[in-house]
Amino acid sequence: MAGTQAEDPTPISSEPKDIGYAGSIRRDLKLMEVPPQLVDEILEHGAEIKADSDASQAYLCTRDRTFLVKVNENTHHVALVDPDEGNEDIVMISALASSRFEVVDGVAPVDRIREMLCENPYIGDDDILMENDETTMSVGLYTLVDLQESTQVSLGEINEEIKHLGACEIDGFLRTLHDEYIKMVMEKIQSSVQERSFHLASFPAAEVENLVQAQGFNVQGIRGCLALLGSTRVDENGIELWEMDHNKVCVHYAKTMFGHGVSRITEFVHRWERMVPQGFHPAIEQLIGEAIVDVQKDTIKPFPKGQLPRECRSRVKAIFEEKESWSAEELKVYLADAKFPSDWNIDVALLEYCQKFRMTKEDPEMYCIRGSAFTAN
Known about the structure:
The protein is an alpha+beta fold and 377 residues long. 33% of the residues lie in helices and 23% in strands.
């Protein structure tokens, strides 16, 4: 492994030496060229090489990051010397290598995690976990170990993706939550909050959770729903409170109406305003990243970024398959949670995959896809 050193190197003599060959030459050793900044991490915490399902691409997974592994053929064989053999006048070659692995920056294939965890979203106590058929019960149910064994992603990035998806552990399995289940739980939470004269913006966690749980809901599912829309804090009396995020709550209620497909903005907003709890104020701007709003046509069409690929190139491709031109503001929202190579950001992605244009001098600047960036695929 290039760059690994357990101790200070012995000074290299400038005197010429003869070369000899050991009795048997090994050809089974694999060389790996690793960026210097990774050496200490690998030596301290270890790493694992994983291949994708068809063995077309290999990945190096450290504790927190995933890298691409490429095979480079050497022009000449690399001779490896055993420091314990030979003497002061002769160097003994004990192994030869005709190729090396090179570790390069890349994007972890995290979309496979979403595919697995969304196979069987949790829909409540009557879902597949309640079936008696053990074979049926195992369909689409995964543990953290299953994700580690079935994906080419580091543990740190797996946990990051679990959090991003809002998955929670229920009965030993990691589950995403079905939209209908979230809607049902939030209705119970809202009624429980009103029953105790609390406000949805901030309410005692244990008291409301117990009220909803008493109605037959799994406590982990309840907390999973709440975590998607808010966060907890402890007040000055040591009581844990749930505090709902204003925008997330408004978007949640908007998404419950997305099943209607394309809607008139005016009609949609009217129904939305009547649906949100008291004290919450919906605004059409909150739906950037969740729907395509066309003010000129007075239409709103669901297009949630949460259902798009996370890998940046695939995300850009999916965005422009939906609509040919986008504003910079829209694209930055839709790309905000995309997975980029470590030296990329949104601006680099726009430069690489998109191009600017204006229909007239008076029109705002827009982006369309750069076709040459996708011709290979």
